[in-house]
Amino acid sequence: MSRYSLATLARHAWRSNAHWPEALPERPLKPSYDAVIVGAGGHGLAAAWYLASQHGMTNIAVVDKGWLGGGNVARNTTIVRSNYFHPARRAMTNRALELWRGLSQELNYNVMFSPRGIINLAHSSSQMDDLARRGNAMMVDGVGAELLSVEDIRRRVPILDTDPQARHPIVGGMVQHEAGTARHDAVAWGYARAAMALGVDIFQNCEVTGIETREGRVESVNTGRGRIATPRLALCAAGGTSHLARMVGLTMPLENHLLQACVTEPVKPVLDCIVTHGVHNFYISQTDKGELVLGGDIDGYNNATSVGDPRTFEEIARVCLSLFPGFEQLRVMRTWGGVVDMSMDGSPILSHTSIDGLYVNAGWCYGGFKATPAAGEVLAAMIATDTTPSLAAEFGLDRFTTGAVVSEEGHGPRPWMYH
Amino acid sequence: MLRIPCPFCGERDYTEFAFWGDASFPRPADPQELSDSEWSEHLFHRDNPAGQYLEYWHHALGCRGWFIIQRDTRTHLISPVCRGGEGRS
């Protein structure tokens, strides 16, 4: 696989761009692999890349029921941040942020990481106190955070309605300058291409139909394309984790819910950072093409499909216009949904299981995309060494038995209430 | 929009209701007697089916009654309902 560079670009341009090699060539399925990853999304492909690049394990297959990067890595709102209060969540996303910065160079693929900053708005003095507390916690870990006054926000985002008479008057906010966005599809493609260059095999349209174990160990996985013998199997299939775990008799602390998002028609640059609402769950950013990407809450009831309730859009639009009355004339161009694994404490699961050689990376709720590089790196280390990397220490399945849940929001076992 | 058939008031938009989760299993009669893993099983582990699903709804902005419906999580077709904890399968 050739490296992308100015020289290859020029060479192929000289030859009328007619001889580019296939980016993801089809390869035959081998009867056995050292590890199989279920799910060719961001996390699964990242894990494959780090297994190959950091641990020298290249005899790996990534299998996916659908097409590469067709799940939630294609459906998120591309936001990358690490402004969590809980130390374990912050450490994980902060490691991801470190990796995001060099990812395009590392993968030789432009993932368009753009650290444009995220502003969390506050609409009351108690919310300001809360943001100050969160910002302080972040700064203790060396994660930059800055409190903003209304005047700061007006200067930074002039299109926001900062009028004290607004529907939700803004009293201030907090910014994480290092947060940003990344081109989500390119993340999947970049990891896939880089991993394949090191020898990883990726199989699309290859649904897992069964998992065989022997004496409590993973032995093989049955797929639509045949049986693959493997001693190590990692589940990275958001939305399908419960289904896959059931194949080996495990029930997961997960529920499937639907998260929707939408984009407007493209307009000239009006918003150069990410803005989140302080009262409603709402987040918005503008893509490089000019579209505004908006998202909100999950639909609120269990859903196994990716078709959402229109009411969620009404709410997203209403909240959007309360902050940005100037967007009133914009048309929504596209809406979509993705099935998310909502976990029982709102935090991810990156864990061994009671079956030797079976690893689970699931329950990322709304927040899987931002963590992609770190989740992949940690999962790769877990698969390669069969230990629990320190970043995953608090995200084990055993926390639901010991009671040490990682619940940033503290809603109890009600996954539909987490974010 | 999802419409929920309240057994007391009839069918209404789901925005009148609070969703209250999986109703497919009863609360253990004596939680004190359970081991940690049994309690964890009850509290956190879910079948999470793509298909028929029993769930609690609370008519929070209506009669404030509680009831259980059976809904298919793939089609959102709703089967007959029961009030409170009656008739749980």
From TrEMBL, chain A:
> What catalytic activity does the UniProt entry give for this protein?
sarcosine + O2 + H2O = formaldehyde + glycine + H2O2; sarcosine + (6S)-5,6,7,8-tetrahydrofolate + O2 = (6R)-5,10-methylene-5,6,7,8-tetrahydrofolate + glycine + H2O2
Ranges of residues in domain Rhodanese = 36-79
Task: Tell me its EC number(s), please.
Answer: 1.5.3.24
* Keyword Manganese annotated: no
Record keyword Transport present:
no
Tell me which domain of life the UniProt entry assigns to the organism this sequence originates from.
Answer: Bacteria
Q: Which UniProt keywords apply?
A: Cytoplasm, FAD, Flavoprotein, FMN, Nucleotide-binding, Oxidoreductase
Q: Name one GO molecular function term.
A: sarcosine oxidase activity
**GO CC terms:** cytoplasm
Subcellular compartments: Cytoplasm
What the entry lists under InterPro entries is as follows:
FAD-dep_OxRdtase (IPR006076), FAD/NAD-bd_sf (IPR036188), Rhodanese-like_dom (IPR001763), SoxB (IPR006278)
Cofactors needed by this protein, per the record, are: FMN; FAD
What's an example Gene Ontology biological process for this entry? tetrahydrofolate metabolic process
Q: Which family does it belong to?
A: Belongs to the SoxB family.
PANTHER family on file = FAD-DEPENDENT OXIDOREDUCTASE DOMAIN-CONTAINING PROTEIN 1, SARCOSINE DEHYDROGENASE-RELATED
NCBIfam families under this entry?
soxB
Q: What is this protein called in UniProt?
A: Sarcosine oxidase subunit beta
> Which organism does this record belong to?
Halomonas cupida
Automatic annotation (TrEMBL), chain B:
Q: One MF term in GO for this entry?
A: sarcosine oxidase activity
Pfam families documented for this protein: SoxD
> What biological processes does GO assign it?
tetrahydrofolate metabolic process
Q: Which Gene3D superfamilies does this one have? A: Folate-binding superfamily
- Which segment of the chain is annotated as a signal peptide? none
The name under which this protein is listed is: Sarcosine oxidase subunit delta
Q: What is the lineage of its organism?
A: Bacteria, Pseudomonadati, Pseudomonadota, Gammaproteobacteria, Oceanospirillales
